Amino acid sequence: MDQREEMISVSGVDKFYGDFQALAEVDLSVKHGERVVICGPSGSGKSTLIRCFNGLEFHDAGSIVIDGITVEEGSKSLRTLRQEVGMVFQQFNLFPHLTILENLTIGPMKVQRISKSEAENRARKYLDRVHIPEQADKYPAQLSGGQQQRVAIARSLCMETRIMLFDEPTSALDPEMINEVLDVMVELAGTGITMVCVTHEMGFARKVADKMVFMEAGRIVETSPPDKFFTNPDSARCKLFLSQILEH
Ligand code: ADP
Ligand code: MG
Q: pLDDT 10s per residue in the chain (248 long)?
């Protein structure tokens, strides 16, 4: 049995937008250092689920516990929660009027109240980690999409969170820039950080995932180790989905 500390524990979660049920009876467990890849058709609830992990959305029933913190709307612990969980989105959301270095230092200085010099040291460390140390003094518009997404990953790393969530981080990128971002994510996966990635990049998934999750219509239809997931998934819907995306 795997004795590692449970970092994300989701049990019986439902989520509604008005009358529409976006998540239904979702259960998921993610251990410390585990890498989980979530896939499934558009509208299946993938973004909603991971947005519920850091309080960008709130579930209506069931429970979500992140690194010991129970996620609840209005709870005082949301601030702590957001210091535990970083997120990288499809859109990079960098501040256009700030340099790359300033984009990386603003969060730690404001939220964690660390000094400017400490924040800059951290920023340079993580810019090195994403292989663009030379871009520190430029503005976002001067960088390619792939470079901007790597800055967004570095920005999240600068908060030194224990969990990183990725929501289709390469799907807004030109094809030739996808690999540079995936390479950084593969390296990150090697550092032992707990990762939950929503992505349809199955090459990446095969490289890093400890566990694959397939969602459809707000439900987790399949959870399995990659070996099984890619060769012999239990559900026909998952098989069909994989055959469709792996054709390309
Ligand atoms: P996915 O990320 O798998 O594409 P989402 O989690 O974004 O799916 O959305 C799941 C469903 O919930 C979709 O049908 C979507 O239209 C709906 N939805 C998402 N966000 C909202 C919202 N803020 N208000 C109403 N419906 C929403
Ligand atoms: Mg989504």
A: 566 799 999 999 999 999 999 999 999 999 999 999 999 999 999 999 999 999 999 999 999 999 999 999 988 899 899 889 999 999 999 999 999 999 999 999 999 999 999 999 999 999 999 999 999 999 999 999 999 999 999 999 999 999 999 999 999 999 999 999 999 999 999 999 999 999 999 999 999 999 999 999 999 999 999 999 999 999 999 999 999 987 65
Nearest CA, atom 22, ligand 1: 17
Q: How far apart are CA 83 and CA 78, in angstroms?
A: 9
Query: Helix (H) and strand (E) counts for the chain?
Result: 9, 10
Atom of ligand 1 nearest to the CA of 51: 6
Residue 211, beta-bridge partner list: 36
- Of all protein residues, the one whose alpha carbon is nearest to atom 14 of ligand 1 is 43
Question: Taking CA 186 as the corner, what is the angle to CA 101 and CA 193, rounded to the nearest 5 degrees?
Answer: 75
Q: Which residue blocks in 71-115 are alpha helix, DSSP H?
A: 78-84, 100-111
Closest ligand relative to 167 C-alpha? 2
